[in-house]
Every structure is written in C-alpha cells, then in structure tokens.
C-alpha cells in the first residue's frame, strides 16, 4: 500500500511539472493616479459594461463573471455600453487610446469569435493588449482610477479551468513562470 502511495505521489508531482503554463500580463498604460483596482469574480468573464463621458474618456467599468457582476471600478458616466458573450466566447484582445497625463479615452474589446465592443474616443496614444498564449483569455483588468475616470489599465490573461477543483475556485489562472 505504501509503495502505491509513493508511486502516485511521484506521478502527480511529475505530471504537475509538465503542465502547460498559460498566464501572461499586458503591462498597464496610462498616467496611473488615484486608487488601484483589480477586477475579480468566480468563473469566466461573460459580459462587460463600460461607462464614458459622452464624447470623452472612460469613467468606469464592470465585468460579469459567470452570473455575478463585479463591483463598479471607477464611476458611472453619462453613457454606458454593454456586451454579453456567447457560450464559450472570451475576450482575447483589448486595444484603445490613452493620454499619459490623465485618462483612458477609448477601449476596444475583441472576442474569440471576432466580435468587438468599442467605447470612447480615439484620442492620443494607442495601446494593444493580447494574450501570449492562444489558449488564454482575459481574466482580470487592473490599474488605477480617480473620482473622475479610469487613469490606467492593464490586462491579465490565463486559461480558465474547465473542471474546477475546490482549491481552484475564484478568479484563478494557470500560473506561468515567465
């Protein structure tokens, strides 16, 4: 019995060592003043809401993880745009425009099915975020916001576990050693 236990332990540690790593990070852009945020939730991202000052910058956003909405990061502005994802669809690219001295002015979310959501104005410096690994999808947005709008944004990419284990509940990704 002890031999079987040792063999199982050896097999498990060897198997874990060779699991593919799918985590990557797109470094934050923007001026970065204000309070920090990091979106969180359980399961996959299934929708996003983005607020803007009409004809101006991004003021806030919310993400839905499975069936629950995250808190509002930033504030609600004068205009809200929302996109719900289809079954097995994920965000695989985020691009947009930002002014290094103040706010994020535009966000463009692209899905694995080629659909996109564009919010804000194409003003100032461009950025483009995408996962390092094709199996990865958007898991977390992080950055900073002040009382007026979103001042910086970064993206965390990872693979969502298809068969969750109790120890893997929450907003988990497969961590890489990049």
Largest sheet: 5 strands, antiparallel
Radius of gyration: 18 Å
Q: Approximately how much beta-strand content do the residues carry?
A: over 45%
Tally of DSSP helical segments = 1
Assembly of the depicted chains:
single chain
Taken in chain order, the helices and strands follow as HEEEEEEEEEEEEE
Please characterize this protein's 3D structure.
The strands form three sheets. Strands 3, 4, 5, 6 and 7 form a five-stranded antiparallel sheet that branches. Strands 1-13-12-2 form a four-stranded antiparallel sheet, with no helix packed on it. The chain is built from one helix and 13 strands; from the N terminus they run H-E-E-E-E-E-E-E-E-E-E-E-E-E. It has 178 residues and is mainly beta. It has one helix spanning 2-17; strands at 24-30, 35-38, 45-52, 58-65, 68-69, 73-74, 79-84, 91-98, 104-111, 116-120, 125-130, 137-145, 150-158.
């Amino acid at each position: 019995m002890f031999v079987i236990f040792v063999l199982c332990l050896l097999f498990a540690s060897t198997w874990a060592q060779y699991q593919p790593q799918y985590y990557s990070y797109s470094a934050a852009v923007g001026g970065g003043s204000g309070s920090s945020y990091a979106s969180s939730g359980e399961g996959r991202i299934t929708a996003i809401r983005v607020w803007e000052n009409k004809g101006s910058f991004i003021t806030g956003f919310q993400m839905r993880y499975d069936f629950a909405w995250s808190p509002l990061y930033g504030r609600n502005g004068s205009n809200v745009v929302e996109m719900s994802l289809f079954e097995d669809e994920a965000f695989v690219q985020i691009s947009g425009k930002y002014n290094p001295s103040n706010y994020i002015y535009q966000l463009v979310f692209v899905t694995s099915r080629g659909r996109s959501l564009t919010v804000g104005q194409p003003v100032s410096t461009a950025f483009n975020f995408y996962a390092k690994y094709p199996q990865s999808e958007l898991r977390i947005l992080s950055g900073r916001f002040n009382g007026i709008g979103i001042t910086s944004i970064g993206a965390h990419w990872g693979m969502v576990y298809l068969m969750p284990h109790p120890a893997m509940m929450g907003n988990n990704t497969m961590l890489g050693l990049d």
